[in-house]
Hints:
Elements lengths: L3 E9 L2 E8 L35 H4 L5 H4 L7 E2 L5 E4 L9 E7 L4 E4 L5 E4 L2 E11 L5 E2 L6 E9 L4 E10 L7 H5 L9 E8 L11 E7 L7 E8 L6 E2 L1 H10 L17 E4 L1
Parallel strand pairs: 3-9, 4-16, 11-14, 11-15
Antiparallel strand pairs: 1-2, 5-6, 5-12, 6-8, 7-8, 8-10, 10-11, 13-14, 13-16
Amino acid sequence: MARSCRRWWGLSSTILVVAPLACGESPPPEPKSPAPPPVASTSHAHWSYSGDESPQRWSKLDPSYAVCETGAAQSPLDLPQSPSRHEPAPARPQWDPVPLQLKNNGHTIQVDDAASSSLVVDGTTYRLQQFHFHSPSEHTIAGHSYAAEMHLVHKSDAGKLLVVAILFGSGTENLTLAPVWSKMPEHGAPSVALPATTIDVSSLLPAAPRYLRYDGSLTTPPCTEGVTWLVVEPDASMQMSPEQIKTLHAHTEPSTSRPRQKLGSREVLELIP
């Protein structure tokens, strides 16, 4: 056995190690600190609804936007007036009054949901995350466009997205949404939080809503697919005033609507109460 000549001191993780060394033996190399994990980039190219950053060029603006052009299940669509297949509609959403937390990202006015709101579809619970607006409507029905469209974005615990879309014709003032319009922030202005002011989005639905359901995507970059869409079939009560539409345009771009995409082999179902 080699005789101990000196002692080697070193660190192993956070433990001080003292070990005997034989004469002429070199100490082991110092352990390396683990490299920090790479920082994922969350920056994406700016996009718009017009000019050089319009929807026709989204896929060229950033590699992560490629599916905007190559995807086979993109949104929005021109939906049929009377689909050939019908299924039962889901139970009415459990949308609680939403405290107002408004922000303007330059593309839309968004309200983040801090309430406990949910919708159950096919046995999966989807929780309301936020809602926002487009004008004119992104979806059309049998070629008919509407003045505005509201997207209520839901997410399941597994991360799957479901969007309920409400179409508004131009007509009388929408009193349910009036609090949003009265505090709508300008682009670049700080977000507006009004926890004492709530709106009941469930009142925007007809008494017995019928939906047009299909599988699609986000309608803005990165155009991620795998989104379940429930487009509420509009009735005469679903309106906004011309003044409300004008105010929305004044706070975003003049048009915030992506062109309709190809249906392809997808099927549109009508969900009937």
